[in-house]
Amino acid sequence: MYQRLSAILFPVMTLLFVGSIYWGYQELQEKNSILIKAENQYQRAFHELSYNMEQLHDQLGHTLAVNSTSNNYHRKSLVNVWRLTSDAQGKINQLPLTLLPFNKTEDFLARIASFTYRTAVRDLNKEPLTKDEYETMKTLYAKSEEITKDLQGMQSKVLQNNLRWMDVESALATEQSTRDNTIIDGFKMVDKKVEAYPEINWGPSVSAMFERRSITMLSGTPVTAQDIQQKAAQFLGVSDPGRIKVAENGQSTEYASFTASLEREGGHVQLDYSKKGGQLLRFMDHRAIGAKSVSLSEAEQKARGFLDEHGFASMTAVSYDNYGDTANISFVPKQGNVLIYPDKLTVKVGLDNGDVVGMQAEQYALEHKERKLSKPTMSEAEARKVLNPEFKLMKTREALIKNELSEEVLCYEYTGRINGHLYRIFVNADNGIEEAIEKIPGMGEKQEK
């Protein structure tokens, strides 16, 4: 009996054993194939990064080499620098450097891209390159040469020593010692050099773009946890402030704030306030939201009533986004007849009963102020002439927006339809330039109708 059983089982076990070996071999082959593809991608991205930096350095040199009055060439050359910088940033994002500090170099490239783009898009015939901008480009030319040489040195070592990027990824992921890793050491050296660069004059527009906005920019005196308890109790309509718990965040930093929370039936409510000035930054009601039964129009009315009740009066709804059982409605204040877009805040409404379940007001807190608005140089009819003849105009308003240079500009806001969609086109009220164009999403189209 045992002989018969073994005669049957032995071939079966042999087949299973051989099958498992074959399966393991196949798995190993597939894994190796994936690793080879990843390694090839990393190698290509790294060598293209080195090439892009070399080309960027050369293009900056071309810009400096021509006559200061060669505005057309300057524009073309600066656009090329912007393109090459963007390509270099893309190649960095393809490398396994997520866990490696390389942010200084990435920030440096981002500033080059912003500086060259913002300089190229302006009318250089009316506003040619300034002396300061020439000096900035000379600095960028010199610094880009340093980065290029360092990357080329790393490139030579990678090729000579047949170094693998998969080893870099593995070392970073497992937090192993990387003292002898040429690639990681090279990138750390580049980033350290960039960090040590003296302050570069990027100009006001680029500096404003990269300026870290923190609550220290707010006006007012610092408040205490007890002050926040009182504010939150008043906001929520709670008679006993002691029910509200307050925690301080980022103590002794530029992001110091307070979080007030209240446990109540159906969930808990959370409010964030700035420590400086005690201004409300955001509100969240973490409750379960039921089936949709409220229209977008009703939700807007509820949101508007909520804002009026809490001191945000005379706000105008400018955009609507429907996310299933909730709606996000963005509002901006009016100064006279002008919509102030930099002071935007967003209200989140539950579409089960129309109650407000959230508000993002950080941008409003940082930007809101009384502005001295000048009168438009152009009439609305004159500015309208720049619109596409096929644009079916539905509504016109005056609006203050921030343009690509982070400058506040007074515009005529034209809402209309073209190519089957609704758009907002913001035309500068002083020079007739189209400053911004926004496509209004589907729910916004219903509202605009």
Task: Outline the structure in words.
This protein has 449 residues and is of the alpha+beta class. Strands 1, 2, 3, 4, 5, 6, 7, 8, 9, 10, 11, 12 and 13 form a 13-stranded mixed β-sheet that branches.
Q: What is the C-alpha radius of gyration, as a whole number of Å? A: 30 Å
How many H/I helical runs? 12
Number of domains as seen in the coordinates:
3
Termini separation comes to: 87 Å
Tell me the β content.
15-25%
- Unreliable runs: 443-449
The overall pLDDT average reads 82
The number of distinct β-strands equals 13
The general outline is globular
Q: H/E element string?
A: HHHHHHHHEEEEHEEEEEHHEEEEH
**Which range best describes the helical content: under 10%, 10-25%, 25-40%, 40-55%, 55-70% or over 70%?**
40-55%
Structural class by sheet pairing and helices: alpha+beta
- Outline the biggest β-sheet: 13 strands, mixed
Give the helices and strands, then pairings.
Layout: H1 2-65, H2 71-93, H3 103-120, H4 131-160, H5 165-174, H6 182-195, H7 204-210, H8 225-236, E1 245-249, E2 257-264, E3 267-274, E4 280-287, H9 296-309, E5 315-323, E6 326-335, E7 338-340, E8 345-350, E9 356-360, H10 362-367, H11 380-384, E10 392-402, E11 408-418, E12 421-428, E13 434-440, H12 442-448
Parallel strand pairs: 7-10
Antiparallel strand pairs: 1-2, 2-3, 3-4, 4-9, 5-6, 6-7, 6-8, 8-9, 10-11, 11-12, 12-13
Helix pairs in contact: 1-2, 1-4, 2-3, 3-6, 4-6
